[in-house]
C-alpha cells in the first residue's frame, strides 16, 4: 500500500492541541482507505524552540523538511513572549517563501446545521485563492529619523509579473473547473495607485485567456461588505497576500467560526512539500484548555490528503465533519459552535463517524 511521509509541526498555543486531534482523524482515514502516513515530529517553528535555541528554526530546516511529501503545520506565535513579526518571519513566512508555496487555498462552505451569524446566508461555498509569496508581505523599506518628531517608516509592496500572473492563472483555472465559473478579484486600485492598478491590468490580460470565466473586480472595502450581505454570490475569490489574509478570516466567521477553516500553502509545481494548516492562529486566549475547535486542522488534513492523491479519503473526512457538525450534539461540539464539548470530543466524534461509515 501507499505510504506518505508527513512532517508534523505543532508550533504554539492551540496548534499543540488541534494537531494531535487532527492526526487521530488522519490515522483513521489511513486505516479505512488502506494507505500509511509515516509522520515525523518537529519541535521547531515554535516560541519554545526559540527560547532554547535563540532562533525559530535550525539553520538546516529546509534540508530537514524537503524530503517530506507534505508538512502538517499547527500555528505559530506568542506575542507575550516575542514580537509576532519575529516569530512569523522566522518560521511560517520563511517556509512559504523558501518553498515558493505561492498558492494559498482557503475554502469556506456553510455546513447545514451549523449556526451562522447571518439571518439568510444562502448556500455559501467559496474558495479564496490568496497570493502567498509577495505583495504587502515584505521586509523591504526602512525607518528614518529614529526617535525624533520626524520619525518615519516606509513599507514596500512588491508585485512581480510572474508572481501576479501565476496566482491569477491558478485562480482562473480553478474558476473554470467549477460549475459557476465565477471569479472575483479583490482590488483597491482607487487608493493604492501603483500596485493595485497593475494587479487589475494583469487580471484583464489573464481574463482574455479564460473567456468562459465571468470576472468581477471589487474594491476590498466593498468586497468585505458584500461578503456579509450576499456571501452565497461568491465562487472563487482571488486576492493579494494581505487582502486574501483578511478575507479568509471573514469568510469562515460568516459560516459559524474561524475555527472551521483550512489553509493549504501549495506549490502547484510540486518541487517543494506543501504546508497544510488551519486558517486561525495560536489563539493563546483559549490555549491549554482543550476547547479549541479542531475542524480547521482536520479539514487541513483532508486538503493534504487530496494533494497527496487520496481524494476518497479527503472526501470521507469532510463528509464525517458535515455529519457530526450537522447533527448538532452539544456534547460533541466546541464552544465556538455553541457546544459544551472539547477539542478531543469533537475530533473523536469525527474519527468515529469516519470509521463507522
Ligand atoms: P487567532 O486566529 O489565533 O485567534 C483569533 C480569535 O479566534 C481568538 O479569540 C481565538 O480564541 C479564536 N479562535 C481561533 N482559532 C480558534 C479555534 N480553533 N477554536 C475556537 N476559537 C478559535 O488570531 P490572533 O489572536 O490574531 O493571533 C494569535 C497568534 O497567532 C498571534 O501570534 C498571531 O500572529 C498568530 N497567528 C498564527 C497563524 C499561523 O501560524 N498560521 C495564523 C494566524 C495568527
Ligand atoms: C495566516 C496568518 C499569517 C499571515 C500571519 C500569522 C503572519 O494570519 O496564515 O493567515 O498573515 O499570513
Ligand atoms: Mn491570517
| Fraction in helix | 40-55%
CATH class identity of the largest domain = Alpha Beta
Number of strands: 12
Assign the CATH topology of the largest domain: Isopropylmalate Dehydrogenase
Number of domains: 2
Pfam families: Iso_dh
Catalytic activity: (R)-malate + NAD(+) = pyruvate + CO2 + NADH
GO molecular function, one term: NAD binding
Cofactor: Mg(2+); Mn(2+)
Description:
It is a single chain. With 357 residues, this protein is α/β, with parallel strands linked by helices. It folds into 2 domains: 1-101 and 274-357, Isopropylmalate Dehydrogenase, CATH 3.40.718.10; 117-254, Isopropylmalate Dehydrogenase (3-Layer(aba) Sandwich), CATH 3.40.718. It is 40% helix and 19% strand. The chain is built from 12 helices and 12 strands. The strands form 2 sheets. A 10-stranded mixed sheet has the order 2-1-3-12-11-4-5-10-8-9, sandwiched between helices. A two-stranded antiparallel sheet has the order 6-7. α1 (15-33) packs parallel to α12. The longest helix is centred in the N-terminal third of the chain and has 19 residues, at 15-33. It is globular and about 60 Å long. The protein starts with a strand and ends with a helix. Manganese (II) ion (MN) binds at residues 245, 249.
Amino acid at each position: 500500500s501507499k505510504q506518505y511521509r508527513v512532517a508534523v509541526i505543532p508550533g504554539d498555543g492551540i496548534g499543540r492541541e488541534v494537531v494531535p486531534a487532527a492526526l487521530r482523524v488522519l490515522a483513521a482515514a489511513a486505516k479505512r482507505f488502506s494507505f500509511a502516513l509515516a509522520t515525523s515530529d518537529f519541535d521547531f517553528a515554535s516560541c519554545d524552540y526559540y527560547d532554547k535555541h535563540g532562533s525559530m528554526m535550525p539553520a538546516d530546516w529546509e534540508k530537514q523538511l524537503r524530503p517530506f511529501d507534505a508538512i502538517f503545520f499547527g500555528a505559530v506565535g506568542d506575542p507575550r513572549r516575542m514580537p509576532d513579526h519575529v516569530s512569523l518571519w522566522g518560521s511560517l513566512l520563511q517556509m512559504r517563501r523558501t518553498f515558493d508555496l505561492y498558492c494559498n487555498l482557503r475554502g469556506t462552505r456553510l455546513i447545514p446545521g451549523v449556526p451562522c451569524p447571518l439571518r439568510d446566508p444562502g448556500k455559501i461555498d467559496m474558495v479564496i485563492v490568496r497570493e502567498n509569496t509577495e505583495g504587502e508581505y515584505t521586509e523591504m523599506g526602512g525607518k528614518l529619523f529614529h526617535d525624533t518628531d520626524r520619525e518615519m517608516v516606509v513599507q514596500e509592496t512588491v508585485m512581480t509579473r510572474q508572481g501576479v500572473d501565476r496566482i491569477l492563472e491558478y485562480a482562473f483555472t480553478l474558476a473554470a473547473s467549477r460549475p459557476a465559473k465565477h471569479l472575483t478579484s479583490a482590488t483597491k486600485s482607487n487608493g493604492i495607485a501603483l500596485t493595485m492598478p497593475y494587479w487589475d491590468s494583469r487580471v484583464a490580460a489573464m481574463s482574455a485567456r479564460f473567456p468562459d470565466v465571468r470576472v468581477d473586480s471589487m474594491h476590498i472595502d466593498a468586497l468585505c461588505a458584500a461578503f456579509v450581505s450576499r456571501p452565497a454570490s461568491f465562487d472563487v475569490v482571488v486576492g493579494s497576500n494581505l487582502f486574501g489574509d483578511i478575507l479568509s478570516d471573514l469568510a469562515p466567521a460568516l459560516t459559524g467560526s474561524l475555527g472551521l477553516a483550512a489553509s493549504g500553502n501549495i506549490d502547484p509545481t510540486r518541487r517543494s512539500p506543501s504546508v497544510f494548516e488551519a486558517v486561525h492562529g495560536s489563539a493563546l486566549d483559549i490555549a491549554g484548555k482543550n476547547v479549541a475547535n479542531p475542524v480547521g486542522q482536520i479539514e487541513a488534513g483532508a486538503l493534504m490528503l487530496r494533494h497527496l492523491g487520496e481524494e476518497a479519503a479527503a472526501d470521507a473526512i469532510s463528509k464525517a465533519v458535515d455529519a457530526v457538525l450537522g447533527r448538532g450534539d452539544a456534547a460533541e461540539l466546541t464552544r465556538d459552535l455553541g457546544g459544551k464539548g472539547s477539542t478531543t470530543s469533537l475530533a473523536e466524534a469525527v474519527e468515529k463517524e469516519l470509521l463507522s461509515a
